[in-house]
Amino acid sequence: MKIKIVLFFLVIACCISCNKKMIEAPIVIDEVKEETVIKVEEETVTMKTKLVYPDTRKDLTVKDDYHGTEIADPYRWLEDDHSEETVDWVKRQNEVTFDYLHKIPFRKDLIGRLTELWNYPKYSSPFKEGDKYYFYKNDGLQNQSVLYSIKTLDDTPKLVMDPNKLSEDGTSSLGGMSFNKEGNLLAYAISEGGSDWRTIKIRNVETGQDYDDLVEWGKFTGISWAGDGFYYSRYPEPVGDGELSDKNEFHKLYYHKVGTPQSEDKLIYADTGHPQRNVYAGTSEDEAFLFVTATESTSGNALKIQRLGDSELKTIYDKFDSDFNVVDNNESKILILTNNNAPNKKIISIDYDNPSMENWKEIIPEVAEPIRSVSIVGNKLFVSYLKDASSQVKVFDMKGKFLTNLDLPGIGSVSGISGKKEGTEGFYSFTSFTQPSTIYKLDTETMESEIFRESEIDFDASNYITKQEWYTSKDGTKVPMFITHKKDLKLDGTNPTLLYGYGGFNISLLPSFQLTRLPLLENGGVYVVANIRGGGEFGKEWHEAGTLGQKQNVFDDFIGAAEHLIEKNYTNPNKLAVQGGSNGGLLVGACVNQRPDLFAVGFPAVGVLDMLRYHQFTIGWAWAGDYGRSDDPEAFDYLIKYSPIHNVEKIDYPAILVTTADHDDRVVPAHSFKYAATLQEYNTGSDPVLIRIETSAGHGAGKPTSKRIEEAADILSFMFFNMGESISYNKP
Fold first, then answer.
1. 280 — phi, psi (to 5°)?
2. Is-contact 509 546, C-beta < 8 A?
3. Do the beta carbons of residue 317 and residue 302 sit within 8 Å?
4. Do 61 and 33 contact (CB within 8 A), yes or no?
5. Which pLDDT does position 39 carry in this prediction?
6. Residue of 485, 663, 671, 699 marked catalytic
7. 665-675 burial by CB neighbour count: b if 16+ within 10 A, else e?
8. Is the pLDDT of residue 345 over 70?
9. What DSSP line would sit under 620-652, residue for residue?
10. Catalytic residue at 671?
């Protein structure tokens, strides 16, 4: 079962290479006491020597008054990403950064090994539309995965769509797709250069020909078919140069009929009185119902439902304090996953003909383990729970009676079960930190699973181990972390270690196989994921304990994870790196500011780093549910205490590599620009503070394989080198 809506990262939360040709000189690396030395021809450069950074103009006249407190913003001019001055600054920063990275002697070896690791076929789980199965496949190093169809599971695949042909450099990607009920029409959304903006086209999958239809300016949208058209969401067309940075407001829901121009699309729903609300649509599998949700932030939504053919939408819930996620309908009964009066979520049934709250019926009650997702396949409910931050799947009948557990291969993550409500087969994938995604075929009558496809990666997972350890945070809260390393690792406190975290927006970090981590593990390193507060690993209360005025809990949890790793002799402060992206970039920036002594290297990626102005750009206003806004005096008082840009001091900082992209229109690159400029100004130490600005890339989705490999190699090179690790890469 699937609701006919395709939403790509609608959480809208805040989870690369330079085109300039670099000239590389012969390099030799030596160990000299505690310093790492590079010899470039006749010139010797020590990595402890302070780099010469590009000049960054300061405008001391730019100041803002926040409730009587004056705050300077001398690098405000970097927010204008179209100005010649900003473009020149980006160019000069990249020249310094890539000159440094390209002189790291083992960078090429890491690119080579990552390329070897990446070069194996990768498949998605099959899914059925009409009389065909569909799946994605990447031959290994293709920039984008390709969509194929088969009539039977052992049939010869037929090409349906190759996103690699959308652009010459692989930076255009498929940003969502949806088939009509008959399975002969495919609506697909294209993202250019990693942007969140979408252009939707329609393809006849029988002929392979595209219609003339062009639906533009979709953003944070689903594609939900009903009859001879589909529902989608869009913003007004941006004015001037504001496409990548202007605030996104007045989201509206439309219906597009196939074969007509977008100008004739029917407006279905708009809330003109509340410009900072987003609206999304979904349709039931039988196309009997339309579901419309409205949001004000990244959690909580209002819900309206309409039986298609009726004249009006019925309001089911008009507040924004709870999540209401429609699973599907069972005739006139609508099944909904909600945390309304159930922090760990429950499944309820609402009768469309009698929808008042007192008539809501509980189908599957809340338990200690949070519910992550629900699928209906073979007229059974497959409910995925989180048990200590890993997957557990229970099976129920449509009335909520427990039937059985789904046997899983171990501790890891399960994708949602894909299949049809009336069918008898489903597919799911399982992965862990050391096991690549394995696809299973499920018989929903016998509940037996069999391996459908296994990975062919050149990596021996049997040499590695993942364990879960719990540690105590500053306020006494017990927090778990996953630790992965070689089985024969010595706990002598000298192992290069990468600690990753997120801690926000109810997003859970579950076990998953990451190709970019493998060279770290192969070279005796330790990879750690901390399940800190702010995430969704333990339900709504765990999330809320890391929001608003309690955001410091998130940073304390992450710092506590670092201290635990040091205390248990996994590593020491000279061998410990921290990484996080988006909200995780904020996490890294705040923790490096608060405890610079604890880390050797920091990687804040596409981070939310200016907490006083984040809501002024694109979709930033939607994050206020987690952060609060600086125009609120109470929120300003806690935001100013941890905002990374506003808490940089004249001290010795660890080695920092800030990463961002010029087409990031979710967390605009100005955050990273201003943060890097401030760090370069204030850092009194000799460790490098660099910014790596990817071109023709966005917040991360759809990034081509070639850019992902180069970025991963640069990050690992920077980490190893600034830990004094002179690695000699030998394939294990």
1. -135, 155
2. no
3. yes
4. no
5. 39
6. 699
7. bbbbbbbbbbb
8. yes
9. GGGGHHHH--TTSHHHHHHHHHH-GGGG--SSP
10. no
Looking at residue 149, its pLDDT comes to 96
pLDDT per residue as tens digits for the range 275-316:
989 999 999 999 999 999 999 888 899 999 999 989 899 999
- For residue 270, list its beta bridge partners: 252
Catalytic-role residue among 582, 630, 643, 717: 582
Site of tokens 């910014």: 691
Please give the pLDDT value at position 724.
95
Average pLDDT over residues 210-225: 94
pLDDT at 685 over 70: yes
- pLDDT over 80 at 665, yes or no: no
Handedness of CA 647, 651, 654, 657 (dihedral sign): positive
The predicted model gives 357-373 an average pLDDT of: 96
Tell me the C-alpha to C-alpha distance, in Å, between residue 326 and each of 47, 124, 225, 402.
55, 24, 16, 20
Which residues sit opposite 44 in a β-bridge?
A: 39
Do residues 285 and 331 touch, judged by C-beta distance below 8 A? no
Q: What is the structure's pLDDT at 225?
A: 97
pLDDT of amino acid 175: 84
CA distances from 610 to 299, 489, 533, 702 (A): 22, 40, 21, 26
557/546 Cα distance (integer angstroms): 10
Strand partners, 230: 225, 256
The token duo for 684 is 């009194």
Answer whether 662's CB lies under 8 Å from 243's CB: no
pLDDT greater than 80 at residue 702? no
Kindly state the helix (H) or strand (E) to which residue 456 belongs, with its residue range. none
In a 3-state reduction of DSSP, which class is residue 407?
coil
User: Could you tell me the pTM of the whole model?
Assistant: 0.88
pLDDT value of residue 242: 62
Helix, strand, coil abundance in the chain, percent, nearest 5: 20, 35, 45
Distance CA 28, CA 36 (A): 11
| Contact by Cβ (8 Å): 283, 4 | yes
108-112-116 Cα angle (round to 5)? 170
Give the rounded distance of the alpha carbon of 716 from its chain centre.
20
Strand bridging mode 122-123 / 69-72 = unpaired
Instruction: Identify the helix (H) or strand (E) that includes residue 116.
Output: helix 107-118
With a cut of 70, say whether residue 499 has pLDDT above it.
yes
Digit-coded pLDDT (tens) for 501-538: 999 999 999 999 999 999 999 999 999 999 999 999 99
Burial 437-476 (b: 16+ CB within 10 A, else e): bbbbbbebeeeebeebbebebebebeebebeeeebebeee
Please say if 543 is a catalytic residue: no
Instruction: Give yes or no for residue 14 having a pLDDT over 80.
Output: no
Confidence at residue 25, expressed as pLDDT on a 0 to 100 scale: 26
Question: If you ran DSSP here, which 8-state letter would residue 310 be given?
Answer: B
CB-CB contact of 684 with 629 (8 Å) = no
pLDDT at 340 over 60: yes
HSE, side-chain direction, 13 A CA sphere, residue 149: 16
